[in-house]
Each structure stands twice: as structure tokens, then as C-alpha cells.
Amino acid sequence: MSIWGKFMRKNSKDAAGPEALALPKNIDSGNGRAAASLPRRFKFKSFLKWLGISLLALFAIWTTLNIVAGIQLRHTMAELKQQGFHFSLEEIQPAKVPDEDNAAIPLRRAAEMLGSWWPRSSSKNLYPKLGQLSEIIDKYRTNSTVPLDIKTWPAAVQSELPSLVESREMEEMYGYICKVAEKKKANFGIDYSEGINALLPNLGGVRGIIRCLIVKALVESQAGKTSQAYDTLLTAQKLVSHLDSEPMLVFSLIRIACDNIILDKVQSIANSTGCSEEWAKSYMPEITKSLSRQTREKVIDMEICGGASVFEGMLQDDTKLAGYFYSVYRKPLARAVLVVLKPLIKKDFRYYLLRSVNGKKYLVAPYYEIVADLKREREEKVPKCYFLSQSLCYIYGHIVENFARHDAKVEVCRTGLALQIYKGRHGKYPDRLEQLAPDILPVVPVDPFTGKSLIYKPEGEGFLLYSVGGNRVDDHGDETLDNEKRSRDIVWRCPR
Fold it and tell me: Residue 450 has what DSSP assignment?
């Protein structure tokens, strides 16, 4: 190399310095970052690939489960439709009734006079006598084991009652109630298309009217106006019968509560004064209406249909049908979760339908035939994964026992009135209940809890008649209360 070449090479090294000869940091033969970044990029792409495959697999599984659950649900619904079950609330709702024939119109007016109906009114200020009577009843109606036993009320209060029940305000309200009793049909104007959001009248107003009528009948009985007292009780019973026009469980339960109060007072007045054959014959068919199995079948159909509308609302994202349940899950994240859970909701829906329809027999079959089934039904728990069924499925045991106790009370009352008729004809009570049929009763009533005849024992100048009650044990007419505050036996003990 020439001297000039060596000089130029030396000067270029000095000018560039050591950094000029170094390799770039991102280019290395084996130990730099570029070598490490290649596998990391590969791993990230591989992760995305497998994530996509997994999501597609999960979507395929979800779609398959959703389709299978939907097919099973549609098959179940088709079978139930063939059996006559309706899934539309509009198909079950009662027919419209013209206003001039509708018992609900005068009933609403009577309830408004007491200050309770739908919408809420403040009529108590317009009818002070009725307001005062209602306040007295609310204050003293539970002061003894016997409901509305006015004999246990303070003497000063008892002395006020005649002026209150004979007031012009009570006379006006009773006029509306008589119009209710005269009419054959009722429609309370409930919009069933609203599903579980349907607005109901304040049925407490009906109970308030019945309590006022009971006090009126008791005051009339104490004043020696027995015939008038019985007419008041019959009018009250005809009013209560109109509650069967709406196929809803709450209406049936209110009817049972009102029936029980009226039946107690029928027995009480009959024990004191007896009753005429004419009145007993007019009352027995009226109370027998409450034993209708067809009415109860419609009630449970409506309740099942109402629950089904909730499921449909959740599946269709319909706030109107889902009601309260939709409001719980209306947040975006919760609604996204519901979309994911659609296959489970469909299986939940199917479980609800099968269990509910299977339980329908409990309200239409005699109690003594289904006792064992009811016990199994109480022990069968709704799976926790079926979160809607846990809220919507009825535990039929207590409901069915309430109906059975009511039926037993009705049969005891019917039979007791038949005994009164027999005594009026023959001067004494019969030795056996079989002597009542077929002249007074078509057949001898049976105890709903046993399927056998009611227990009857002549006692002195009177009789002891009873059903064994929910424990299905003969407690010999024991009227003391059990742990659930229900009388052990359902009794009519007549002293005369």
C-alpha cells in the first residue's frame, strides 16, 4: 500500500471514531433484540390464531346448545298446546261485559266510598260515618281469636255501631252492593296484555266492604232483625262470588278470605237464632259456587301463562312482558350476559312449563288424592341454575291446603245448614248424615282431607260437625290453633 493510502485510512478511522465501526444495535448475528423479537411476534400471532379458533368453537357450541334448547322448548310448547294450554294472556282473559251488566261498576263505587279502589281515592272525607266505621273495624277486628267478634269490643264502641250501620252513608253503599248482587257478570278491566305489569284494583277495598257488611249483619242480629241479618250475609256472599270472574290467584285467595269470614258469621247467627229453610236453600247454592274446579283450572292457567310471558320477554328483549325481571337485568353488561345465557333460559323455560303444568293437577284434584304428590313436590328443589324458575315456580303445598281448608269449611257449612233444615222438618237432628240425602242434599258431602264423610255427632239439643283439617288426624273437634295458627279441626259446634 502506498504512503498516501495508509494516510487516508488512518485519517478516516480517526474522523469516524470507534462508534462508526460498530454494528447497529438492532442488527446482530445472535445476541441482539432483533433475534429475540422474531419469536415473540410469532408467539403473538399464534395466540391470536388459537384465540380466534377457541372463540369460533365456543360460538359453535353456544349455537348448537341454543338450537337444541329451542327445539326442545318448541316441542314442549306444541305438546302443551295440543293438550289445550294457552300461551297468550289475551286467550285466557275474561270476555268484556257491557257497563250496564257489569257488577264491577257499582262495586267500584262502593269501594270508593270507603276510600279504597283503583286509583286510590280520598272519599273518607266525604263519608265520615263510613270512615269512622272502617277505623273501628281496623282497630278491633283482631282483638280476639274469632274474627270480627263485636261482642268483645269495648262497650262504648258497641254502642256506636247501630248509628253507624244505620246511617244514610251505609244505606247508600249497601244500595250499590245490592246492585252488585243482582248482576250476573263482572269484569274488573284488567289489561292482561301487560303481563305481570297489569294494574290490579285494590282488592283490600272488597275486604273492607265485606267487613262492614259483617258488622252490619251482627248488629242486625243483636237487634233481633234476624231475617235482615241473613239477607245482608247473602248479599255479601253474592258480591264475593264475582271475584271468580277474574282468573287470577290473588282474586281466588281474597275470595277464600272473604268466604271464611262470612261462613263464620253464618254459623254464629245460626247458633244463636237458627235459620229458616227458605234462606238456607238460597244460600247453599251460592256458597257451592266457590267449589268450582273449572274456575281453579283457569286460575292456574293464567298464573302459568303469566310466568311464561316473563320468559318470552327475557328471550325477546321485551320490557313489557319481562316486567320487573327485565329491570333487574337492563344494564348493558347484564343484558350481554343474558344473551350468552339464552340456551340456559330456554331450558329454564321448559323446566318451568313442565313443572307448572304438572302442578296444575294439585288445584283441581281432591286433596286426599294428592297428599303424597304434594309431599314430593315440597321436597323437590328447583335447580339453582334455573334462576327464573326459582322466582316464578309456585310451591303448591300451602296454596292447595288453603283451598282444601276452604272447601272443608264450605262443606261443613252446607251440611250444618242441611241439618238445620232437617230439624225444622222433623223437630230433631238426624242420627246419621246419610239421612240428609237425597231430600235435602243431593249427596252427603265428604271431607276434602280424607275422602270420607264429615264427622258428625249429635250432642244434647245440638250437634258437633267437623272436618279433620290439614293434619288429617281426628282431634275430636279440637278448635285450638296449631303452630301455623290454624284450627286443628274445622268445626261447627251448634248448641241448639
Answer: T
Residue 62 identity (one-letter amino acid): W
Per DSSP, the three-state class of 466 is: strand
Helix (H) or strand (E) segment spanning residue 455: strand 455-459
- 41-50, 176-185, 250-259: which has the minimum mean pLDDT? 41-50
Q: How many angstroms separate the CA atoms of 211 and 287, rounded? A: 18
The angle at the Cα of 19, spanning 16 to 24, to the nearest 5 degrees, equals 125
CB 483 within 8 A of CB 471: no
DSSP string, 35-70: HHHHHHHHHHHHHHHHHHHHHHHHHHHHHHHHHHHH
Q: What is the pLDDT of residues 52-69, one digit of tens each?
A: 888 899 999 999 999 999
Residue 71: Cβ within 10 Å count: 11
**Contact, 419 vs 463, CB < 8 A?**
yes
From 272, 164, 171, 176, select the one nearest 219 (Cα to Cα): 164
Helix (H, G, I), strand (E, B) or coil at 453: strand
Residues 293, 296, 297, 303: what is their CA dihedral angle, to the nearest 10 degrees?
Answer: -170
- Grid coordinates representing 65 are 346448545
3-state helix, strand, coil in the chain (%, to 5): 65, 5, 30
Q: Which residues contact 290 (CB under 8 A, 6 or more apart)?
A: 241, 244, 255, 256, 259, 406, 410
What is the DSSP code (8-state) at residue 274? -
For 427, half-sphere exposure in the C-beta direction (CA atoms, 13 angstrom radius) is 0
Question: How big is the chain, counted in residues?
Answer: 496
Nearest to 467 by CA among 399, 406, 397, 396: 406
* Cα(14)–Cα(12) distance, integer angstroms: 5
User: Model confidence over 64-103: pLDDT tens digits?
Assistant: 999 999 999 999 989 988 887 777 776 778 888 999 999 9
Beta strand pairing status for 455-459 and 462-467? antiparallel
Q: What is d(CA 397, CA 402) in angstroms, rounded to the nearest whole number?
A: 9
- Contact status, residue 407 vs residue 448, Cβ threshold 8 Å: yes
Helix, strand or coil, per DSSP, at residue 492:
strand
Longest dimension (CA), the chain: 158
Cα–Cα nearest to 302, from 369, 343, 250: 250
Give the global pTM: 0.82
For the purposes of burial, counting CB atoms within 10 Å of the CB of 210, is it exposed (0-12), middle (13-18) or buried (19 or more)? buried
Could you tell me if 299 and 247 are in contact, meaning their C-beta atoms sit under 8 angstroms apart?
A: yes
The mean of the pLDDT values for the chain is: 83
123 has a pLDDT exceeding 60: no
> What's the first-to-final CA gap in the chain, in angstroms?
149
Nearest-angstrom CA–CA distance, 435 and 429? 10
Contact 209, 257 (CB under 8 A): no
Least Cα distance to 278 among 417, 140, 410, 164 occurs for: 417
